Amino acid sequence: MERNPNENDFLENNLPENIPFNSQDSIFSSNLFLDGDGEIILTQTSDKLHWKSIESVLNGQDPSSCFGIELVSKSETTLCFSDIYSAEFIDLGLVHEASFRNARGPLLGQSFEMYRFTIRGVQKSKTQPSVLVPSLYTFGHKDAQTCQMWVNRINDFLNMDEARPKNLMVFVHPKSGKGLGCKVWETVAPTFSQAKVKTKVTVTERAGQALDIMSSITNKELRSYDGVVAVGGDGFFNEILNGLLLSRHKSSYPPRPTEINHPVEKNGNGPVLDANGDIRDPSDSGEDESPLLKQSTNLRTGEDSCQTAEDLEFSFPNEKFRFGIIPAGSTDAIVICTTGARDAITSALQIVLGKAVCLDVAQVVRWKKTCTSKDEPCVRYAASFAGYGFYGDVITESEKYRWMGPKRYDYAGTKVFLRHRSYEAEVAYVEVESEKKNIGLEKESSGNWTKGLWSLLKKSERVACSANCGICKTKAGHTSARCPSLEPYSKDSRWLKSRGRFLSVGAAVISCRNEKAPDGLVADAHLSDGFLHLILIKDCPHAFYLCHLLQLAKKDGNPLDFEFVEHHKTPAFTFTSFGKESIWNVDGELFQAHQLSAQVFRGLINLFASGPEA
């Protein structure tokens, strides 16, 4: 005789009575049928769902086998609400018992027609901990109201999570990377629909369109969204980032190179420069403002004068408004550093689940475009990297071969490497106390043996950034919860100077991990510690530079442990070129500058991400 799966009175007679929904410690249970498993007891607590097979409850054992036949069933499962993104009623349909597997293969179990509802959640990949995999569970019951009741209860819990987005702007770059931007969005769009997240999608038709939209959008409209998502690469995200920050981030400029060129004392490391001099506000200089500069950058003092009344309505940092990136570019370094994976589904799932991580942003100010041009400050923001010399030359060369797709960077990089061009420049940077101690220790070590030992010591001290990073969560002394300091360093900071011929000058905001550099440019760079990593590659023989690049491409390599490489952790630096000039690469976008200054703002923006798994 065929059994009706919901005629069992076990639950009604043996489980606690249903407790009202508003009780934080409530336990609510029902006897349901799980597709592919069989009859189960589904229990809801204040923070999770838990289900267990009826047979295991009645018999006190795991029904994984019967008379030598293996059941394809998992008897007990727990799913936290923080890992659930959808619950939906789907009406009548077939629900199957557990499948059986014998020597000849799987055998289908018995099926029943009943009302159904689905729960969608996420779980970590077994082979890649940072990759999230969607999971789908279909439950059935003979009573439609029971199914709908479960859907309502789960959705009520999900809706209480204010961190989850409800309404997002989405920009899709159709030609990003391999030209698959639209296809990538089509792949992840159902995830947003299932999570009941509204999306306003714009497929860009020209360069700069996203920047124009974000810079012109009103505060009122912006407040109606929980964030903005870029479907593309690092350069496309940079365009959206600049569209928002250029018009809304208020801060003083970093000092010009000419304002810190008077050494006041010397030590063994070179001239130490005083930054106590008056830093003129650009708005008082009488110079024309660059069209890219959409806002006044008046120097403001005092916590209550950080923003005007209008800007207080939408300013940065802004915990309620987050940025999201769905990777579809050539390198996708920001996504890899913030999620641990270059996976569109993982990024989409972290967005709909409302994950959040703070990210430093560098403000890059060009004072002079060429050595003969007049002073005209122009601002760019960078979330990953700004580089000159080799880095800029590769981007410039690659523009000639866009038809090659991402492979153009390998081809252009090889050509630029063989050219081996160096550039004369002067770089000044803010001294950091911890770095000062490390430099002193390095100078004390002499000889190849002690230098090798020092390199191993430094490597062992690396603390890579990861989810719930303790370094990033530690608040810096120069920030406050209400209004972070307009400058990421003190007026009493001392500056060091380095001048010479460089193959490259780079400033990494994050580690910049990618598929070609598994540890990135700086393995221990953090997402939100308030520091840039300044990397100066001095002119050296071809073979030496090749060794540096090979170490970059190597897992657990040491690309910074060469005598021709300078690495300085700093909150700010200035740059001046001499003679023949290269061009700057700012998050993958070209930026010509003869004189340039940069400073980092700690945790300036929030991303829909959780950080990579350790």
Outline the fold blueprint.
Layout: H1 10-14, E1 28-34, E2 38-44, E3 48-53, H2 54-59, E4 65-66, E5 69-72, E6 76-80, E7 84-96, E8 99-102, E9 105-107, E10 111-124, E11 132-141, H3 144-159, E12 167-172, H4 181-194, E13 198-203, H5 209-216, H6 219-222, E14 227-232, H7 234-248, E15 263-267, E16 270-274, H8 309-312, E17 322-327, H9 333-339, H10 344-352, E18 357-368, E19 378-382, E20 385-389, H11 390-398, H12 407-419, E21 423-430, H13 433-444, H14 448-460, H15 470-473, E22 494-508, E23 532-538, H16 542-552, E24 565-570, E25 572-578, E26 584-586, E27 589-591, E28 595-607
Parallel strand pairs: 12-13, 12-14, 14-17, 17-28
Antiparallel strand pairs: 1-2, 1-11, 2-3, 3-6, 4-5, 5-8, 7-10, 8-9, 10-11, 15-16, 16-22, 18-19, 18-28, 20-22, 20-26, 21-22, 21-25, 22-23, 23-24, 25-28, 26-27
Helix pairs in contact: 4-10, 5-7, 11-12
Structural features, described:
This protein is of the alpha+beta class and 614 residues long. Among the domains are: 26-56 and 74-99 and 107-158, PH-domain like (Roll); 165-253 and 315-355, 3-Layer(aba) Sandwich (Rossmann fold); 359-432 and 491-601, Tumour Suppressor Smad4, CATH 2.60.200. It is built from 16 helices and 28 strands. The strands form 3 sheets. It has a 17-stranded mixed beta sheet that branches. Strands 6-3-2-1-11-10-7 form a 7-stranded antiparallel beta sheet. Helix 5 (209-216) packs parallel to helix 7 (234-248) and helix 11 crosses helix 12. The longest helix has 16 residues, at 144-159. The model is unreliable at 6-25, 63-73, 263-312, 440-447, 449-454 and 476-487 (pLDDT under 50).
